[in-house]
């Protein structure tokens, strides 16, 4: 009986490990980008030993699980004219951070919004929002309206425009710039 | 990659034709998971499949696009990810930039207008490697690193209409 179980388990492991190996290869292939051929999922299938449908299913699953954060193209936003890139940081009282974080998430011109730890005494800010714009004046006007709309006048904040990108790269999505 | 080359490279703003703009806007929202995804997008935009393939290839070659395909969420893959900042005096800025960028773990590095003037993202294979990398950068540069990992994500909406 126990032999039967372990034989079954071996067979199962063999089946799973084949596909796990294929999935690992698929993940590695995908980090290099999607092939620019009419049937890219088929091309990936040929490189990984999976079927075209298995490739499509795996990508669907990874998207649903949040492992793949986005699927499409990654732009060099500066090259597209988004040269005014402001990191707006706020010192939000801890008891208000949930409400304000959620409120800012609904603001259309905010591209990213994260809570991060303060580093006292040098850095009192705990909420980080990115605004990517085509010019500074417009970004600052958007910020003024944000402050007025959400009554943030009494919240300490700072605006850190970036003036040089020394490096922007990566096959992995790191969600910040 | 030298600092000067990097900063020079970012200067020109791409001159895009209507098909390129339409594709950039469309593909920032993803690619359909069907057997012939480029043909599907081509039909939506009234282009040919070959035009879609050629245009994406051209934009990648020209550096307008960084990459095309699924982006894995580094944190979800079990790796480490953090945002870090440093306060670097002007006279030392160039040297420290080169030192920091020599670390493979540095994914983005931006100069920002603040007392903390150097901001970069660290992406490592394991969570534990973040602390080691932070220490190594401090040892190499001689300046402290302020490590500010994400505690909560409220919003990600990184789309850039053209």
UniProtKB/TrEMBL annotation, chain A:
Pfam short name (any one): NirdL-like_HTH
Top EC category: lyase
EC number: 4.1.1.111
Pathway info: Porphyrin-containing compound metabolism
Catalysed reactions listed for this entry: siroheme + 2 H(+) = 12,18-didecarboxysiroheme + 2 CO2
Domain Siroheme decarboxylase AsnC-like ligand binding: 80-166
Record's keyword annotation contains Nucleotide-binding: no
Keywords noted in UniProt: Lyase
Domain annotation Siroheme decarboxylase NirL-like HTH: ranges: 30-68
Domain of life, source organism: Bacteria
Keyword Lyase in annotation: yes
Residues annotated as transmembrane: none
Biological role: Involved in heme d1 biosynthesis. Catalyzes the decarboxylation of siroheme into didecarboxysiroheme.
Record-linked PANTHER family: SIROHEME DECARBOXYLASE NIRL SUBUNIT (PTHR43413:SF1), TRANSCRIPTIONAL REGULATOR, ASNC FAMILY (PTHR43413)
Similarity field: Belongs to the Ahb/Nir family.
Subunit record text: Probably forms a complex composed of NirD, NirL, NirG and NirH. All proteins are required for the total conversion of siroheme to didecarboxysiroheme.
Protein name: siroheme decarboxylase
Lineage: Bacteria, Pseudomonadati, Pseudomonadota, Gammaproteobacteria, Pseudomonadales
TrEMBL record, chain B:
Superkingdom of origin: Bacteria
Protein's UniProt keywords contain Methyltransferase: no
Pfam families tied to this protein: AsnC_trans_reg2 (PF17805), NirdL-like_HTH (PF22451)
Substrates-to-products reaction catalysed: siroheme + 2 H(+) = 12,18-didecarboxysiroheme + 2 CO2
Top-rank EC class of the record's enzyme: lyase
Record function comment: Involved in heme d1 biosynthesis. Catalyzes the decarboxylation of siroheme into didecarboxysiroheme.
Oligomer status and interactors: Probably forms a complex composed of NirD, NirL, NirG and NirH. All proteins are required for the total conversion of siroheme to didecarboxysiroheme.
Family (UniProt): Belongs to the Ahb/Nir family.
Name by which UniProt lists this protein: siroheme decarboxylase
Species name: Marinobacter salexigens
């Amino acid at each position: 009986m126990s032999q039967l179980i372990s034989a079954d388990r071996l067979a199962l492991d063999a089946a799973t490990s084949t596909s796990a190996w294929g999935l690992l290869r698929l993940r590695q292939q995908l980090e290099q980008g999607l092939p620019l051929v009419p049937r890219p999922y088929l091309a990936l299938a040929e490189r990984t030993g999976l079927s075209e449908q298995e490739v499509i299913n795996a990508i669907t699953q990874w998207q649903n699980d949040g492992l793949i954060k986005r699927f499409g193209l990654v732009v060099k936003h500066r090259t597209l004219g988004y040269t005014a890139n402001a990191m707006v940081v706020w010192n939000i009282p801890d008891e208000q951070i949930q409400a304000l974080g959620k409120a800012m998430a609904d603001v259309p011109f905010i591209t990213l919004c994260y809570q991060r730890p303060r580093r006292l005494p040098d850095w009192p800010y705990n909420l980080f929002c990115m605004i990517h714009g085509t010019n500074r004046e417009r970004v600052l006007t958007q910020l003024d309206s944000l402050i007025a709309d959400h009554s943030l006048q009494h919240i300490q904040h700072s605006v850190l425009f970036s003036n040089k990108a020394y490096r922007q790269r990566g096959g992995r999505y790191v969600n910040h710039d | 990659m030298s600092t000067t080359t990097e900063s020079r490279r970012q200067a020109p703003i791409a001159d895009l034709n209507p098909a390129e703009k339409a594709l950039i806007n469309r593909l920032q929202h993803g690619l359909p998971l069907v057997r012939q995804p480029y043909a599907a997008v081509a039909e939506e935009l009234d282009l040919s499949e070959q035009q879609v393939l050629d245009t994406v290839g051209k934009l990648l070659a020209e550096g307008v696009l960084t990459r095309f395909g699924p982006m894995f969420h580094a944190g979800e893959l079990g790796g480490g990810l953090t945002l870090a900042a440093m306060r670097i005096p002007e006279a030392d800025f160039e040297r420290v930039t080169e030192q920091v960028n020599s670390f493979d773990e540095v994914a983005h590095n931006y100069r920002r207008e603040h007392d903390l003037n150097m901001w970069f993202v660290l992406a490592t294979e394991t969570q534990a490697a973040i602390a080691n990398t932070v220490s190594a950068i401090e040892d190499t540069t001689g300046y402290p690193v302020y490590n500010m990992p994400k505690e909560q994500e409220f919003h990600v909406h990184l789309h850039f209409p053209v």
